[in-house]
Amino acid sequence: MNARKTWGIKAFETAELKLDNLEIPAENRLGGEAGCDFKRFAALCWAAQTAMAAGVGRASFEYARGYAKERVAFGEPIAHRQAIAFMLAEMCWEVDATRLLSWEAAWELDVKKPDAFKEAYLAKLYGDQQVVWITDCGLQILGGHGYIREHPVELWLRNGRGFAAFEGMAIV
Amino acid sequence: MIEFELPDGIKNLKKMLNGLAGGIMRKWARWADDNEHQRVDEWTNLMWNAMKGMGTSMFGASGKEKKPGEQKEGEPKKIGTRNIQLAVTVEELGWGDAGLYLAMPSPGLGGAAVAAAGTPEQRERFLKRFSEGKPKWGAMAITEPGCGSDSAAITTTAVRDGDSWIINGEKIFVTAGKGAAEDSEGLVVVWATVDKKAGRAGIKSFIVDHHTPGMKVTKLEHKLGIRASDTAAIIFEDCRVPFSNILGDPEVKAGFKGVMATFDATRPMVAGNALGIARASLEEVQRLLKEAGVEMRYGVAANNLTAREKDVMMMEAQLKASRLLTWKASWMADAGIHNNMEASACKAKTGKAITWITQKAVELMGPLGYSRKLLLEKWMRDGKINDIFEGTGQINTLIVARRILDYGRDELK
Ligand SMILES: Cc1cc2nc3c(=O)[nH]c(=O)nc-3n(C[C@H](O)[C@H](O)[C@H](O)COP(=O)(O)OP(=O)(O)OC[C@H]3O[C@@H](n4cnc5c(N)ncnc54)[C@H](O)[C@@H]3O)c2cc1C
Predict the structure, then answer these.
(1) Domain limits at A142?
(2) Do B398 and B267 have their domain in common?
């Protein structure tokens, strides 16, 4: 049906699909007779999305760090100021924390821990929140230049904002 | 492959400690909070005997084990478990009661410094006592009235006089200071400058034995939380210690980094302890909600969560994130990997997280959370210290920032 315009993640096409009494053969059922373990499937997506959130955050962190060391204001690189440097420090450990949460959830899924579903869900909640915060900091560190599309940080903020909206299916 | 499983030995230890924490620590928690500075003998004796039994190796101060750097060339690199085991241990004890944990007889930070920087003779002379006889405490005295974060600005002096050092100055906020200096045959490790003009390079640490003439506890602080722990002011007046009590190299050269390196091992442990308090708060909230018939719906779309669900789940996620960073820093220490940045990161993160989690727990429970009927309000008070000692949140953030930017203190103040 209609392809939808989105704010970010534009390379990834999203469309609205209408199903109106659509008949499909029974053998098309995912997982066959037994069906698929939907909870596990969702959890796998969440773990992967959390890893993506860490990646988007990392991109923004690394870019902003490089910029902050070069950009001079009031006679010194802006990274000399704690207001900037402390933001970078926190971005850095939040990227790390998000990554570790996704790895742990993935590991729990691999070894089939009973709590894996919940852990993956919590990881995703955390990643969703952090990626927005991190990419927003990334933009802030570039100031007005961050708002301009010549730099990628505004793109990462748009992409980052999308994570909380993906219900889990988006990446497969 | 990456693994997140604790070894069976540590799992069993955790279970055992949890029983201890849930029993005796929780039993005395409120009493110790109400009766500031009073020791809980049952706890002191129990822990002392347990520690003696373990040869104090539990707290890393036996001085016997090889440090990662002491491994022979060509020997396959072994990843130890001491730091991770300690992180798990202090989490359980923090879960029980952080005040009692800090008040337990142990080599403490002073002992940790001797274990990390002492010569084999010093380790033997000063650490053996923690596995025999009566309960003892060790303490570390860096902070002064005029400086805390800026530990290079200390003014306490140590002057050489023949076979001795003569120490003069005032130290404040010394955890277990009274236990170490006056109430037991313990020891206090004191930072002092041997040459003020030399700045950082002139700062050395000295082991001062209990009851050394010239060392006097002048005050015990009244605090927001961790009231079971004595926080002492100590004055040193012409306090004479043997020359051999200096830790590390007596030469005035870049020695400051060495003393600071102790923090790479201790900061994850402060974070670990904080995790325990945060977990206690979270579990209490979960228990009360369950009793009230409120279920947490894990898995529903985030935009359909109630505000309360979101809060509780975020407390849980914040706790997990903090723990993973803490375990990572501990694991790195066990693997002999330089962890200066990770040690500070986990401490800063956990200090912030525990402040938020414990305050949130009080908030979520409303008037009951604020009341003394539960321990939630106490955990909020106890928890806050973790964002202050062993480097404030800001100082640890500063350390991380300098690392990631590759800056020294001139570029980033
Ligand atoms: C209960 C308790 C137990 C303690 N136990 C011990 C102990 O056993 N041994 C010991 O030696 N000390 C101990 N301390 C002292 C503790 O380590 C210090 O209080 C702490 O390091 C902060 O120092 P300060 O209080 O002098 O604060 P200050 O250094 O005066 O700092 C005040 C504020 O300024 C901020 N600040 C300082 N410098 C910077 C900077 N460069 N950039 C940004 N912000 C900055 C700090 O983060 C803080 O928010 C203890 C303290 C307490 C409360």
Answers:
(1) 47-165
(2) yes
Q: pLDDT tens-digit profile of B130-153?
A: 999 999 999 999 999 999 999 989
Q: What's the pTM?
A: 0.94
Disruptive mutation site among A50, A58, A76, A122 for chain B (greatest number of B CBs within 10 Å):
A122
Stretches where chain B sits below pLDDT 50 are 60-64, 66, 68-69
In our burial notation (b when 16+ CB lie closer than 10 A, e otherwise), range B145-173 reads: eeebeebbebebbbeeeeebbbbbbbbbb
Determine the structural domain holding residue B372 and report its residue range.
261-405
Counted domains in chain B: 3
Per-residue pLDDT tens digits for B201-248: 899 999 999 999 999 999 999 999 999 999 999 999 999 999 999 998
Where does a domain end: B81, B116, B131?
B131
Residue A160 three-state SS: helix
CB distance A92–B404 less than 8 Å? yes
B326 to chain A: closest CA residue: A97
Shared-domain flag, residues B380 and B277: yes
Identify whether B413 is part of a domain.
no
Please list every residue in chain B whose beta carbon sits closer than 8 Å to the beta carbon of residue A101.
317, 320-321, 324
- Give this complex's ipTM: 0.92
Residue A30 lies in a domain: no
- Asked if the structure places residue A67 within a domain, the reply is yes
Nearest to B313 among A86, A92, A122 (CB): A122
Q: If we measure between CA atoms, which residue out of A78, A129, A143, A59 comes closest to residue B401?
A: A78
* CA–CA dist B15, B9 (Å, integer): 10
